[in-house]
Amino acid sequence: MPESTRLVDLVQEGIDDFLDDRDPELAAIDSGLSPFIEYARDLLRGGKRFRALFCYWGWRATGAAEGAGDLLTGADDRSLDTVVRAATALEVFHAAALVHDDIIDNSDTRRGGDSVHRRFETDHERNGWSGSSETFGRSAAILLGDLLLAWSSDAFDEALESTPSATARRAARREFTRMRSEVMMGQYLDVLDEQSWQSHPESEQLGRAQRVIIYKSAKYSVEAPLVIGAALGGASDELLAGLRAFGLPLGIAFQLRDDLLGVFGDSSVTGKPSGDDLREGKRTVLVALARASLPAHAVRFVDEMLGDPDLTDVQVRILQDTLRESGAVDEVESIIRNQVERATRALQQVSLGPSVRAELEKLIDSVIRRTA
């Protein structure tokens, strides 16, 4: 079995065990808390596990288990358990971010099913409880997202407990803490720009969209997991710098691909309605580039339509066509290629074992060519 495949299986096992341990804690409080475990399990089942994989290969970049063949043979059990727990923590943190992101964006779906706040809303309606179903759903989902955030810290603490080096523990904790802060501030900047974009000069629109990409997604999708894994393995400052130089441009390319999928993706593959980002009013790099190229009347049309939750499918298609005709889609694809080239050049400068280098090169392709 390929090493990365086995890692994904181990992380799923780690997630299942982690939730199994917390199930009786909630049950002891009240049986009405069972949806918290159920919805957490559903959200944490499957997925691409990019963050777990980058964490693992960052750890392996330090020489951990190099030459051992794969996870099934040769890796020190305690060290392997450490990185699997860290990868589990990253996936639980990602789940927390998804719950909160769906609330902020008022998204109805996630991975082809109802988003968590809609599931709680349905519980309210089905049971005929008093008050607003929508308010209950959002409130309950906020609490589940907060709980997952706390649990991600618990899982990461467990990883640190099995890390023998105090220096490695401090370095990994520092990176994990930085990641959490950057994601939350990046999310706020995203919300801020959706509401305040008219207050900023036209010349700042692209730069602000790029800043959101970096802090809301790029760092935490690729760079932070890589560096956290490497820090757990006792990486040198030189290795950490090399992995950052590789991870950031690849993370930017990752989010730019995500932005294109949010506008043009096949809903049967992405699990989200096509054009969802248009209805949510995302002020992405794609939108900034389009507005800079379009004539004034077309810019007014985009600004009037973007962020309308009631956009019809016809209006979405018109917006999609407008973005394509502006040349912005081609420009974003060009930026993606440039960022991938930057990441590839940076990777070539990092001293790595052959298996680690090969797997990171595969991940470049997986990140960029994904359809969901």
UniProtKB/TrEMBL annotation:
InterPro entries, alphabetized: Isoprenoid_synthase_dom_sf, Polyprenyl_synt, Polyprenyl_synt_CS
Cofactor(s) demanded: Mg(2+)
Lineage top rank: taxon: Bacteria
PROSITE patterns: POLYPRENYL_SYNTHASE_1, POLYPRENYL_SYNTHASE_2
Keywords: Magnesium, Metal-binding, Transferase
GO molecular function term, any single one: metal ion binding
An annotated GO BP: isoprenoid biosynthetic process
Family annotation (Gene3D superfamilies): Farnesyl Diphosphate Synthase
Keyword Magnesium: yes
Family statement drawn from the similarity comment of this UniProt entry: Belongs to the FPP/GGPP synthase family.
PANTHER family linked to this entry: GERANYLGERANYL PYROPHOSPHATE SYNTHASE, SHORT CHAIN ISOPRENYL DIPHOSPHATE SYNTHASE
Protein name per UniProt: Polyprenyl synthetase family protein
Lineage of the species this protein comes from: Bacteria, Bacillati, Actinomycetota, Actinomycetes, Micrococcales
